[in-house]
Amino acid sequence: MRRMRRVKILATLGPASQEEDMIEELARAGADVFRINMSHASHDVLRQTVERIRNVEKRLNHPLGILVDLQGPKLRVSTFAEGAVHLVAGQKFILDSSETPGTIDRVFLPHPEIIENVSVGDRLLLDDGKLQLKATKVGNGAIETEVIYGGQLSDKKGVSLPDTLLPTGALTEKDHADLLEGLKNDADWIALSFVQRPEDIIDVRKIVQGRAGVMAKIEKPQAIERLEEIIKLCDSIMVARGDLGVELPLETVPGLQKRMIRMARRYGKPVVVATQMLESMITAPVPTRAEVSDVSIAVFEGADAIMLSAESASGQYPVEAVTTMNKVAIAVEDDANYRGIIRAAHTEPEATAADAISAATRQVAETLDLAAIVTYTASGSTGIRAARERPSKPIIALSPNMRTIRRLSVVWGIHCVQTEDAISLEDMVDRACVIAYQEGFARPGDRIAITAGVPLGTPGATNMLRIAFVRQDGAGSS
After folding, report:
1. How far apart are CA 317 and CA 282, in angstroms?
2. Most buried one in 29, 224, 328, 400, CB count within 10 A?
3. Is 388 a catalytic residue?
């Protein structure tokens, strides 16, 4: 199952797509990684879904990544005596600590951490930003506000705080239990929601201990303020544009998306662009022109992966949504302007042997018009470095570790193959040539570039570049 594109596709599984046959259809249509959203999935559903994905992986003989997306702290108002109220601009409205049902004048806010940390002048956004309040007085267990933008407010609607840094971490008790269950079921990636500070990543890393990749979802203004620190600490980021667009002015989100993609690439961290990419395909078999442009921009900018949410989880056309995303990505990567745009965002390698080898490999492969770049990678770091260079030639990552291979399924341009560690330099060259030939990347007479670390099998020690000929029997000579 060789993909004809470099950018990867994440598909969220849900009621419309959690059966094994549908998962296989989505994988054949182009899904590389499957997301399990713990906002909606129980532990039983998680276990069952992982088992089905692994069954499909075995049948297709193609690695599939699994992303367990933690819910994060959900902040909500309580209930109203009549189910809903209608707030009007200019009126006073209080959020307080009294558990009595809400009225037109007040409502219970079951989050003391909000009441304790909101300052006068801070904004409170309700129901995905549809209503906006401004704090005018804080104290005595209540926040007195003025309604800036009114509308209907009903039971259990969400509260967003774009101006307030909460002292609580991003990991709730539910998240902790879900995280342990995800690790128990060998999830490849754990996505942490509502990250505010670098310490949130450190807390999760202490629990994960390298058993999965940690993906930081960037969806709060507080995370933007400390973006570089967060990117350095995590293994990958997700540009979660939905919540980001609620708490920040919508017109700033495209620029932030570009900035995040470039910064993540500079630090060699895969970046996923998510939310509302093909939103209309929840109910329609074809997307809007604007949605196609939106997906195209993410691909042109060099994102590692693009994600489907409700489109594949609960929509009426999950397979069509993946197929559309696949076709758009292929068309963009075939565009005459694509290489120039990708090259313009190129980042300089760090002053390490592994980075220098990766940069040299891209240049050699393109100058000599090699058929492919083959990289031996134990931990995955060499494969990620090769992808960061965004070469025009295919990248084949070889690893004995299935966990590494599945984790690399979210990384741009990498075709992963599980193979035993080479026992000698000659075996290394032969193995690389045979796999490049068998996987359809090279023909007899072609040349490939091979990178590895010597001594062989040493994680993170890439220090060698070889050019090899693929012989008639598929083996190689250098």
Report:
1. 7
2. 328
3. no
pLDDT for 446-458, tens place per residue?
999 999 887 776 6
CATH topology of domain 84-160: M1 Pyruvate Kinase; Domain 3 (2.40.33)
Portions of the chain given CATH number 3.40.1380.20: 353-477
* 240-243 own/partner pairs: CB under 8 Å, 24+ apart: 240/193, 240/274, 240/275, 241/273, 241/274, 241/275, 241/276, 242/274, 242/275, 242/276, 243/160, 243/194, 243/219
CATH architecture of the domain 353-477 equals: 3-Layer(aba) Sandwich (3.40)
CA 308 to chain centre: 11
Distance CA 21, CA 101 (A): 46
Is 352 labeled as catalytic in the residue annotation? no
Residue 76 appears among annotated catalytic residues? yes
**Both structure tokens of 290:** 């604007």
**In 3D, which of 228, 259, 229, 232 has the Cα closest to residue 244?**
259
Give the pLDDT of residue 455: 74
Delimit the CATH 3.20.20.60 region(s) of the chain. Answer: 8-72+170-337
Which residue stretches of 61-154 are H helix?
112-117
Is residue 35 flagged as an active site residue?
yes
Selected catalytic residue, list 3, 5, 35, 220: 35
DSSP secondary structure letter of residue 84: E
Using CA atoms, how far apart are residues 161 and 243, in angstroms rounded to an integer?
Answer: 11
Place 399 in a pLDDT band, splitting at 50, 70 and 90.
very high
DSSP state of 471: -
Half-sphere exposure for 245 (CA within 13 Å, toward CB): 14
Angstrom distance (rounded) from CA 166 to CA 174:
18
pLDDT at 474: 58
Which positions ≥6 away from 70 have C-beta within 8 Å?
38, 171, 175, 178, 179, 190, 191, 192, 193
Query: Does the domain spanning 8-72+170-337 belong to CATH 3.80.30.20?
Result: no
Q: Kindly report each contact of residues 96-102 with a partner whose C-beta sits within 8 Å and lies 24 or more positions away, as own/partner.
A: 96/141, 96/142, 96/143, 97/141, 97/142, 102/77, 102/78
Which one of 206-210, 376-380, 462-466 scores highest in mean pLDDT? 206-210
